[in-house]
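Appendix B, example 12.
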Amino acid sequence: MKILVVSCGTRYSGACLISDETVISCKMENETALTLPKNEVDQILGETGVSAGAVDYLVFLGKPLGYLERILDTHMRTFPWSLIKFYSECRDFFINKLSIKAIAKKDLNFNKDILYVEISDVLAWRAANDYPNEDVRILTVLSNSLSNRVGGVYLKKSGNVFLEREFHLDNFLESSVKDEELLKNNDIRRFKALVNDYFLENSVIISDIEISQQLCKDLMSKHKNLRVNILKKEELLENAGLYALDWLDKR
């Protein structure tokens, strides 16, 4: 089975081709594009000799209604000061996100089923596979799923992964944050409290951004078995395809 993963409008815009659980090719765009990565798709198909008709499924990273929910959630808290950005992101949503199937048919000549996968679910699935024989509490921390940080608390138990809750964070987890700022930031305190509340004997934080080393040290000093896993942008696209394959196999 061949799966083509595409993403646009986020920091991991690009495309990835997977065949029978093997990553064949993955190409990222240099800039955050709001349209489907046609050039990257054409390069991948051209280099691998795979036609669009030979691809069984197109996987799109992110669920359209999830994007809309996060846009509304973010800007309702800062309205009316965020009106211009709210208009820009809603326009992008209705033009590019809501009509993915029609755009894929027009731009990529793809006329088969499209699967939408949540980025947070992909990270949780990856973390669960990293510890196949353990029950694990998983916290996912994302860079941007449009305009705000979104994370999730998951529990892997008896081979199944359950979403327990979602949470929202601002831009203060990255390694560029000064250590003294960590002590003043409400989101950092809230995140530490979240880790404390949900910590199990085996817990892992998985993210696609570099989390502050000071924050990691603070958390690991209190929770000795806490592990932190950082994925590269290419790994996120690759794991999205493998996650979709796993879901298809279990249907």
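The chain has a mean pLDDT of 79. Residues 119-231 form a domain with the Nucleotidyltransferase; domain 5 fold (CATH 3.30.420).
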